Amino acid sequence: MEIEPQLLGSSNPPHILIFPLPMQGPVNSMLKLAELLILSADNIHATFLTTDVVYHQLIVSARAKERFDRNPRFSFRTFSDGLPNDHPRGGDKFLEMLDAVKAVSHPIVREIVSSGDTHTSSSETNQTLEVVLSPLVTCIVSDGLYNFALDVGNEVGIPVFYFETMSPSCLWVYLCLPKLVEAGEVPFTENSDLDALLVNVPGMDGYLRRRDLPDFCRARDATDDIMLQRVLGQVQQMQRAQGIILNTFEDLDSHLLSYMRSHCSIPIYTIGPLHSSLKERLQANALSSNQPFVYSDHSNSLWQEDRNCMAWLDKQPLRSVIFCSFGSQVVITKEQLTEFLHGLVDSKTLFLWMNRPGSVIGLEENYEMLEKQVLMHGDLLKGIKKNGCIVSWVPQVEVLSHPAIGGFLTHGGWNSVIESVVAGVPMVCWPHYVDQLVNSRLATEVWKLGVDIKDSCNRAIVEKVVRDIMCLRRDELLENATKMANLASTSVQKGGTSYESMKNLIKDMESLTSQI
Ligand SMILES: *[C@@H]1O[C@H](CO)[C@@H](O)[C@H](O)[C@H]1NC(C)=O
C-alpha cells in the first residue's frame, strides 16, 4: 500500500491499534477508549481490531458503524476467529476462545503494524466505508492477555500499552500471585478455611480472604491449574509493556495504586470511569457545536437493548427498584434463578430482572420458556407480575442512572461495578469468577457500598440482603454511594485525576510516536 510521504517521518501522527478481547465488557470499554482518544486529540487515528462476530453484533445492536463512520480517523478491522457458529465464545469455553483468537490474530496484528494497511478483511463489510489510507500504526493498546502483542511491538519497534479490563484490585492480586504461590497461600482447596485472611497482598491484608481470590486459586480441577499457570506467565510479561491503562479513578483505588506503582516500573494510567469521561467529552463537544447530545447512541451493546423497561421505570417511585443483572457472561442454573426470584418476591421490593438470552442453563432462548418451566407455580409468578419487570438486555448505564433505581444485584464484573459507582447505586454482589470475587469484597469492605453474598444463593439470604440495602441500611448506603459518585464525577472533569491521566497518556503516545 502507498503511504503519502507527508504521513511519514516527523509529522507521523499517532495511529493506535486497539485490540480487546472479543467479549462484551472489554469491547465496550476499549471502544470507549477509542472514541475518547480520537475526540481528545485531532491528530490521533485509531483502528479497532475485533472478530467478525463481535463486529456484526456491534453494527446491528449498537449501530456502531454509523457512529464511527462519522470520523475518518477511526476504522474497524475484523477477522474470523475460525470457531464454529454455535461456539459460546466465553463462559467455560473462554480459554478455547482465547487460544483460537490468539492464533489467528497474531499474524494479522503483525501484518497491520508492519504494513500500515488497516483495510478490513471481512468480506461482509461494505467496501465503500473502508479507510483507504491511514498512517502507519505507531502504538498498540492490547488486552493484557494478548502477550504476543509485546513480541510484535518489539519486532516492529513500536510501543505496546496494556489495557486491563479487569479491576485494579484484581490486577494487584495477580501481581502478588508469584509471592502468594511461593508462600504457599495459593492454591488452596475448597475444603480449607475460606475465611482465612491472606498476608501476601500488601494493602489488602486485613480484609482479603481466601474466598475473595479469583476462583482458579481454589484448585478445584485441572482447569484451575491451567488458569493459574497462565496468569503467572502473564504477570511475568506485564512489565515489558510501555504502560498499563486502567478503567478506574485515583480516589477509588488509591490505597492499592500506590502499592502497584512502587511494584511496577512502568506508568499506570487511571483514566476511568471511561463511560463518564466519554460522556463529559461528548457533552462538551455537543455544546460547543450546538448539536443535540444523546448518550444512548454510545452504548456498545452486543445485543439488542430492550428499552421497554425505561417506561416501566418511569412509573416507579424514587429509589424503589433493585436492578438485577449478572452481565454478559455468567450462566446460572434454573435452581439458582428460582432462589433469586423467590428471594426478590419475598422481599416485597420492586425489581427489574435482566434475563439475558442463554443465561440460564436449559432455558435457551426466551422468557416464555422461563415462565413455562420455572415459574408455573402460581404464587411466584403472581409475585413477579406484581413487583417485577423482566427484560432481555438493557441499556445498563441508563438504567442505573434512572431515579427509580435504588440498588443493583450484580455479578460484580468490573464494568458493572464502575457503572454502579458512577450512578451512586448501592450493590448486592453475587460474584462468579476471576475479578468479580475480589471486586465484591472491595465493594463491601473498602468502599462500603453494599453487601457481598458470594458462595451462597438461597431465597432467605436474598430476601434479607435486598431488604437491607433497599430499606434498613438504605440511607446510609446511599449517602456513601453518592459521595463516591461525586468523586468519580470530579475525576473526569477538567483538572480531575482521570482527565489529567488521559492527557498524560496521549502526551506519552505522541512523544513515543515522534521517536519512531
Ligand atoms: C458508610 O461509610 C462509612 C465511612 O466509610 C462507614 O463507617 C459506614 O459503615 C458506611 N455505611 C454502610 C452502610 O456501610
UniProtKB/TrEMBL annotation:
Q: What is its EC number?
A: 2.4.1.-
A GO MF annotation of the entry reads: quercetin 7-O-glucosyltransferase activity
Q: Which domain of life is it from?
A: Eukaryota
Task: Extract the Gene3D superfamilies matched here.
Answer: Glycogen Phosphorylase B (3.40.50.2000)
Question: Keywords of this protein's UniProt record, alphabetized?
Answer: Glycosyltransferase, Transferase
Regarding protein family, the annotation reads: Belongs to the UDP-glycosyltransferase family.
PANTHER family in UniProt: GLUCOSYL/GLUCURONOSYL TRANSFERASES (PTHR11926), GLYCOSYLTRANSFERASE (PTHR11926:SF1392)
Spell out the protein name for this chain. Glycosyltransferase
Q: What is the lineage of its organism?
A: Eukaryota, Viridiplantae, Streptophyta, Embryophyta, Tracheophyta
